[in-house]
Amino acid sequence: MTAVIIFLAAAISSTVGFAFSAIAGAMILHYVEDGVEAVQIMMIASIGVQAYSVVGLWRSIRWHRCAPFILGGVAALPIGILLLLNLEPRIYALAIGSALVAYGLYMLLGRPVLIKSGDRPATDALVGALGGITGPLAAFPGACVTIWCSMRGWDKITQRAAYQPYILIMQVIGFGALYLLQGPATRDPAVFAYALPGLAGAIIGLRIFHALTDLQFQRMINMALVASGIALMLK
């Protein structure tokens, strides 16, 4: 059942390139009682989703644009891991979920907020750092970076070519850190198998993505933010 959930969530989320863990998380937590184990499952499945998407977008990726996001995220990642191991999940799920719902609804119902002036590496690094904190907390590092990229007024390929590599790298580092922090007796190599249904769903979602216009893609991002926020609040 967990594999089926991962496949369906991957097919939906890979259309916009993020929100896999938020969509899958509420359902996975019904079958996996250990919160840390559930986050690991979502991370490894997300790695399968993001890896396929990054390969598909490889020629469009500009690493100089991704670098500030990644550096900020890696720097803040230990904070997210520390909070995961010491906070009550319900508290941060409600906070993150409420913020995503509010923003997504505002963007769907109001005028888009666009910031088109030049490169902003310092702000990019700060946004990446926020994702470094939310990544371990909810296996969901991409929300802040996705929102920021959409505010830049970039087309759908440029947006995904910026936040997709960031999400992949953050999930790989976050998963590796959590896996190493566990004692040998509690590590379960079988968790790596959950990348396979994620990969299968991503194949379907990426095909849908290429059929979308930029406007349709932007609307789907905002809808995904609302849906993922609601899912987090229901965890």
What this model shows, in words?
The protein is mainly α and 235 residues long. It has one domain. The chain is built from 10 helices and no strands. The longest helix has 26 residues. It is globular and about 50 Å long.
Structural class based on helices, strands and sheet pairing: mainly alpha
Amount of beta strand: under 5%
Please provide the ordered H/E string of secondary-structure elements.
HHHHHHHHHH
Helices, by number, come to: 10
Query: What is the 3D shape?
Result: globular
Number of strands: 0
Overall mean confidence score, pLDDT: 83
- Rg over C-alpha atoms, rounded to the nearest angstrom: 16 Å
Major β-sheet profile: none
Q: Roughly how much helix do the residues carry, as a percent range? A: over 70%
Q: Which residues form runs of ≥5 with pLDDT under 50?
A: none
> How far from one another are the termini?
18 Å
A few lines on this structure:
The chain is an all-alpha fold and 235 residues long.
SSE layout:
Elements: H1 2-13, H2 20-28, H3 35-56, H4 63-86, H5 89-109, H6 121-138, H7 142-151, H8 156-181, H9 195-211, H10 214-233
Helix pairs in contact: 1-2, 1-9, 2-3, 2-10, 3-8, 3-9, 4-6, 4-8, 5-10, 6-7, 6-8, 7-8
